[in-house]
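REQUEST FORM: STRUCTURE PREDICTION
Request ID: SP-0412
Submitted by: Lab K.M.
Chain count: 1
Length (residues): 117
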Amino acid sequence: PTQTVMSFPSIQGTKVYNIDKRQGRRGSFDWFEGALVEPDVVLLDLIAVLHPDKLQACHTLASYKTTWLRNIARETATILTSDMCTNTNSAREPLGNSLLPCECIQASGSSTDMKWY
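STATUS: Completed
RESULT:
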């Protein structure tokens, strides 16, 4: 069975992802808590995995690294600790202006006719 799985193109092309990039110290996945309140970041993660060329076309997101989706062949999980929190009474800093110009997603159009999601 292992040889059969290893022959899948997705495995050979190292394009297998898991939702375990951010984990609690006991192995819990932050996906089930953190991702629920940040759908804009989840969308960016999905775009980065499914259509990385679209992010490359947008200069402000060209260096975006996924938050929750981990490439199991290339990345290791981050274990979240209390030391990573600068202020435990507030939410973490937002990603920034999460409104994406359509040209970043569609890679077309000019700055004068930019539409926003």
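NOTES: Strands lie at 17-18, 22-23, 70-71, 78-79.
Reviewed by: T.R.
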